[in-house]
Write a structure and sequence with these properties.
The chain is built from ten helices and nine strands. The protein is of the alpha+beta class and about 200 residues long. The chain has two domains: about 90 residues, no CATH class; about 100 residues, no CATH class. A hairpin with a 5-residue loop joins strand 8 and strand 9. Helix 3 crosses helix 5. The longest helix has 14 residues. The protein is globular. It starts with a strand and ends with a helix. The model has no long low-confidence stretch (mean pLDDT about 90).
């Protein structure tokens, strides 16, 4: 059920915007710049550090030398200024250490590139996969799911609107992977009610 702009599903409080706003990544426009721009690395779940370490030997050859040096110096994660666990950054830059570039200078996640090739069993941190949804763990154990708006993703919001793809629809796969199929079905039902008149 939802109250105003918040929908509660199980132990999650979901921002209405996730169900009403449009979004579809437009890589041709952004070239993966979310991997190299930001105040800190991508938020990580505690269990993800072990998964990255386990798969590191598989994807690390795709990383830049600077990225491998950052991991060697900092480890598979670091703690940012807010006290959150995040992917390490290349010193002196905003670039995630796990970033790779192709010959044309396009930016990709080295973990995900290997995963698409059938190598390794970890795709990438769920915070990256779920973007632009951000998860906040509240003091009572409840998770809050909110829509994050970032200027570099402006084209993705426009593309989603043109293609009529809502945020939750674009992110169906990671939502089902992280929260389960029943959760996604509940999101879909809530979205139908919210968007009935639109």
């Amino acid at each position: 059920m939802y109250h105003g702009t918040i929908i509660q599903i199980d132990d999650c409080l979901v921002s209405e915007e996730i169900l009403t706003e449009y979004f579809s990544c437009d890589y041709e426009k952004c070239k993966g710049c979310c991997c190299v721009i930001g105040d800190s690395g991508a938020p990580m779940e505690e269990c993800e550090a072990g998964a990255i370490e386990k798969n590191y030997g598989i994807f690390s050859p795709l990383m830049r030398e600077e990225g491998r040096a950052a991991v060697a110096a900092k480890g598979f994660f670091e703690i940012d200024c807010d006290g959150d666990m995040v992917t390490p950054l290349v010193p002196g830059s905003e670039e995630c250490a796990y970033t790779m570039f192709d010959e044309a200078g396009n930016c990709f996640c080295s973990m995900e590139r290997c995963w698409f090739q059938g190598k390794g069993d970890f795709r990438k941190p769920i915070s990256c996969w779920l973007y632009p949804i951000r998860i906040t763990l509240l003091s009572n154990g409840t998770r809050a799911l909110n829509l994050h708006r970032w200027e570099i993703c402006r084209d993705a919001f426009e593309k989603g609107k043109k293609e009529k793809v809502r945020v939750y629809e674009f992110l169906r796969e990671p939502i089902e992977r992280f929260f389960g199929e029943e959760f996604y079905c509940a999101l879909s039902e809530a979205a139908k009610r919210l968007n009935a008149d639109s």
